[in-house]
Amino acid sequence: MAVVSSHQLAQCISCHAWNADLSMVAVCPNNNEVHIYKALSFTDSIWDRVHVLRKHDQLVSSIDWAPESNYIVTASHDRNSYVWNLEQDEWQPTLVILRLNRAAISVKWSPKENKFAVASGAKSICVCYYEQDNNWWVSKIIRKKHNSTVTNISWHPNNVLLATTSTDCKCRVFSAYIKGVDARTDAETAFGEVKFGEQLMQLDLAMGWAFGVKWSPSGKTLTYVGHDSTIHFIGDVGPSPIAQTLALRDLPLRDVLFLSERRIVAAGFDCNPILFEADNQGTWNLIRFLDEGKLPPAETKTGTQFLEAFGKFHGQAKHGNNIEIVESSNISNTHHENCITMIAPLLSRGDKEVHYFSTSGLDGKIIIWDVSNISEFVSRLRL
To answer: Superkingdom of the source (predicted)?
Structure first.
């Protein structure tokens, strides 16, 4: 593993998304704007800001960029969502009527790009689709299923099932099948024939707020993370799922990403991505932290005094209380200097495995990671 590039784009980044050929990235610098940067390649050291999208009144909480249609969809705390279309080198917004009375938190295009879903603080999900006759985007709402804010959403590869996480500590799976938009055969899933808004599964594995959630490339496995420093893996998703929970000794995770069917990377408050892998029996294990750290800065007298004081305090805390203190992985110089809030794959068309991914966080950085040699590395690690 290696860090390909690190870009300080703002003081804080709330979300980001890539276009299809990975030449542009859309970023929200923790305000009501979306900045689009362009480079010849995502490995370039210089990115130029080429567009600024201004339409929202409050913080833009989520961005997703459709690879085929090239539409950008944004969601904001102003309770609105816009679909942006590039016309003559200008991004034109179309307002989507969500009918929300609370903030829009997360937005994701479906795999076929004929729908997108918006999670909200109104304990509901808006599933939006384009109505050709009226030339606008309309929404159908899944209500009264969550007991608190919906924090994240993930589309199943079949374009119908939708997984959600919430601050009521639960993960759920719903049907987002819309008659007239989806084919009739799409209604046949592992849960049988489904209809819009039907709750198909509820998982109560976390003891804290649930955040990032993702389906595996095949859709057979689902994973999500909890604020109680847990990560949960659900295999054979259907009427008889198999669940596994790993409790971590480090700080909580915020987002997860499948690199392949049997490998996952997750990141959060430790500022350091973690690799998980399933063995031949389907049991998931933590392999290692991916960030090998930056070169240490030149030692100063002030820094030395602080480290000595911290060591004394840490030792007193360790011996003065009957609590096991585990050294945090991010005391070293990680490339991210604050919580990682989002992981995005860098996928070219036709790719089945993720060889590069990007992370953004509260430190205002976007960092690109190379995991193309992960198989070779894991095999050496086991030896």
So the answer is: Eukaryota
Distance CA 214, CA 201 (A): 15
C-alpha to C-alpha distances, 106 to 61, 73, 121, 277, nearest whole angstrom: 6, 10, 10, 27
Q: Is 230 left (phi over 0), alpha (psi -120 to 50) or beta?
A: beta
* Least-confidence region, from 259-273, 306-320, 348-362: 306-320
Per domain, the residue ranges of the chain are 2-382
Structure tokens at 126: 């808006």
Which helix (H) or strand (E) is 315 found in, with range? helix 301-320
Q: Are 107 and 98 in contact (CB under 8 A)?
A: no
What's the topology of domain 2-382?
Methylamine Dehydrogenase; Chain H (2.130.10)
Looking at the DSSP assignment, which residues form a beta bridge with residue 19?
none
288 Cβ neighbours under 8 A, 6+ residues apart: 274, 275, 381
DSSP 175-225: E---BTTB-GGGGEETTEE--TT-EEEEE---SS-EEEEEE-TTSS-EEEE
pTM over 0.90: no
227 in Cβ contact with 250 (< 8 Å): no
Contacts of 306 (CB under 8 A, 6+ apart): none
Answer whether residue 37 shows pLDDT above 90. yes
Quick one: which of 307, 301, 365 has its CA closest to 332? 307
**Cα–Cα distance, 271 to 247 (Å, whole number):** 18
Highest mean pLDDT among 259-268, 313-322, 346-355, 369-378: 259-268
